[in-house]
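To the wet lab folks,

You asked to see what we're planning to order before we commit. Fair enough. Below is the target structure as tokens, and below that is the sequence we designed to fit it. If anything looks off to you, flag it before the synthesis order goes out.
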């Protein structure tokens, strides 16, 4: 069955193995344009050796966790998460107590994030064993976060997962080098300082990811044009219009403050969701021991597909509250693992590749240490620096 969003002639999709593991073909160079000019982005050597077989060895190691996928349980989780989100938003229509409004807004933001994680899994084709069902669940789960399914799929599944922390290919929290930062306009330098201040991740995700690359992106940021991108952007726009319009209509009907309904029923949940998402993708790939690469041969030789992720350990039940999204190393090695088996898979991977994986028990002390040290990245020396160019980490790669 073909969805109306999938009418692109000749559009390629990620390859999905029968067992559910997704193997990324190399994405075209223009999937996501960046703010840097072509001269700033190192050319990828097309003659570079193919990735070493260790990547596929570890994919095979985790392959058993992709096999046992059910349909009933994932659908129940999906429906329950929608129910909680709906109750949170509905409560804002009838209550007057400020503390209840704040609490309901925070619950709504968290459940937007939970639904996004489900959509993320479905977009990888790992949430259920049914391909068509995954695409419908993914699109519907992405609606509260206003995320167009096809644009997330091409940028995340191919660009980010295909070349994690390889500059010019991966677009998530890509650091500037000290020399690049010095050449930026003062406004952009100020914005980068805000993004990497430790409290600016929500602004980063909303501006650099959602607005520029996901919501009706311009050709500067997404050069490839496909009809599915437009359809999915229209779908989330329609949902946003119904969401905001419904709050306004209820305000007119009930006599409640329209401003209050919009602030607590839409603005706060959506902004807090952006903060959560920006924070999660920051801690997943930014760490004083995590390298970035300009050269693909270095990235391949250092198993960048696995060693550029950080396994953040949370105490129960916090890990389950966010659908185990921080069990991230296993997910990057084999994207066919559903969220409900990630914890087991991460334990297997850690036992096998422990000396090369970055793992942290989350504490605020650890977090602020990372924020303080990871501002810019010197790709020649493979060290993190602060905004003044002072080295803040040990060399992360043996420089040849």
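Sequence we intend to order:
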């Amino acid at each position: 069955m073909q969805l109306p969003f999938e009418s692109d002639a000749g559009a390629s999709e990620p390859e999905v193995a029968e067992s559910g593991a997704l193997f990324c073909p190399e994405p075209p160079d223009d999937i996501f344009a960046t703010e840097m000019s072509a001269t700033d982005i190192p050319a990828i050597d097309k003659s570079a050796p193919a990735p070493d077989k260790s990547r596929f060895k570890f994919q095979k190691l985790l392959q058993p966790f992709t096999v046992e996928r059910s349909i009933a349980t994932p659908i129940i989780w999906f429906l329950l998460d929608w129910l909680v989100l709906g109750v949170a938003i509905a409560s804002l229509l009838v209550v007057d107590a400020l503390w209840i409004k704040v609490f309901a807004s925070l619950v709504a933001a968290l459940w937007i994030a939970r639904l996004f994680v489900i959509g993320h899994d479905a977009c990888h084709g790992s949430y259920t064993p049914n391909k068509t069902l995954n695409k419908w669940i993914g699109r519907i789960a992405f609606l509260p976060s206003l995320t167009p399914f096809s644009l997330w799929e091409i940028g995340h599944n191919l660009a980010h997962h295909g070349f994690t922390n390889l500059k010019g290919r991966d677009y998530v929290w890509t650091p500037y080098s000290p020399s690049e930062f010095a050449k930026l306009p003062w406004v952009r330098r100020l914005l980068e300082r805000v993004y990497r201040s430790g409290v600016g991740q929500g602004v980063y995700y909303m501006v650099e990811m959602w607005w520029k690359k996901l919501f009706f992106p311009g050709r500067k940021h997404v050069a490839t044009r496909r009809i599915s991108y437009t359809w999915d952007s229209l779908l989330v726009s329609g949902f946003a219009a119904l969401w905001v319009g419904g709050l306004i209509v209820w305000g007119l009907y009930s006599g409640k403050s329209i401003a209050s309904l919009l602030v607590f029923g839409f603005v706060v949940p959506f902004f807090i969701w952006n903060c959560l998402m920006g924070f999660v993708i920051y801690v997943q790939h930014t760490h004083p021991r995590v390298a970035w690469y300009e050269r693909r041969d270095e990235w391949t030789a250092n198993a960048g597909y696995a060693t550029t992720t950080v396994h953040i350990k949370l105490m129960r039940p916090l890990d389950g509250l966010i659908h185990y999204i921080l069990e991230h190393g296993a997910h990057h090695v084999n994207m066919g693992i559903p969220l409900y088996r990630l914890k087991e898979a991460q334990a297997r991977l850690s036992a096998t590749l422990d000396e090369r994986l970055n793992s942290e028990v989350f504490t605020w002390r650890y977090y602020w240490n990372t924020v303080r040290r990871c501002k810019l990245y010197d790709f020649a020396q493979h060290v993190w620096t602060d905004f003044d160019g002072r080295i803040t980490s040990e060399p992360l790669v043996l420089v040849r």
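Structural context that might help your review: The first helix runs from residue 54 to 61. DSSP finds 16 helices and six strands in the chain.

Thanks,
Computational group
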